[in-house]
């Protein structure tokens, strides 16, 4: 398929890097810190119990599902309070949590592909997560980062896609959204009027009753190749004219 792309919005977790190793690291680092600084909390809320508490906090505060930072902080504060530890420890615990959250290991193709893509068109990070591109060291490749916390609504709400398009100064149909999640990324982008690209690294079968992605690749490098081919085609067509 061929169509013009003036800008790209790009998901982060499970698109540029896998999130599962990050989640495991966060649990371990936080548990170690709690054992050292809040032992009653560590005893009452080992990793599995902390996950259960987190799910309860999320369920009780569904109006904040766009703000993972707030919900994570609330979970830490409640764990400390319910255990009888000092709730003020939530702040240093959060710093430990957030440092581990930003220790990412990108997929092997991601950084070079991102560099190639950003050389072609402006790229905006569009995420429901709370990764810090400055800490990670990838901010130079992005025009900006728009998070659901910043915007007040999470993907797949059309308004967050539209807000990104407005900042990119592009019509919705000229922007390609790239991500791994069938509903949050592909369906959300399609309903908002953007083009969509599904990064399907795990060989899943597409299953959605309403939409299909405009593009589908198993790596970000393949998208970079597609953009290069598009540019070459446009150049040849211009020369022929």
UniProtKB/TrEMBL annotation:
<dbReference type="InterPro" id="IPR023214">
    <property type="entry name" value="HAD_sf"/>
</dbReference>
<dbReference type="Pfam" id="PF00702">
    <property type="entry name" value="Hydrolase"/>
</dbReference>
<protein>
    <submittedName>
        <fullName>HAD family hydrolase</fullName>
        <ecNumber>3.1.3.-</ecNumber>
    </submittedName>
</protein>
<dbReference type="GO" id="GO:0016787">
    <property type="term" value="F:hydrolase activity"/>
</dbReference>
<dbReference type="InterPro" id="IPR051400">
    <property type="entry name" value="HAD-like_hydrolase"/>
</dbReference>
<dbReference type="InterPro" id="IPR006439">
    <property type="entry name" value="HAD-SF_hydro_IA"/>
</dbReference>
<keyword id="KW-0378">Hydrolase</keyword>
<keyword id="KW-0460">Magnesium</keyword>
<dbReference type="InterPro" id="IPR036412">
    <property type="entry name" value="HAD-like_sf"/>
</dbReference>
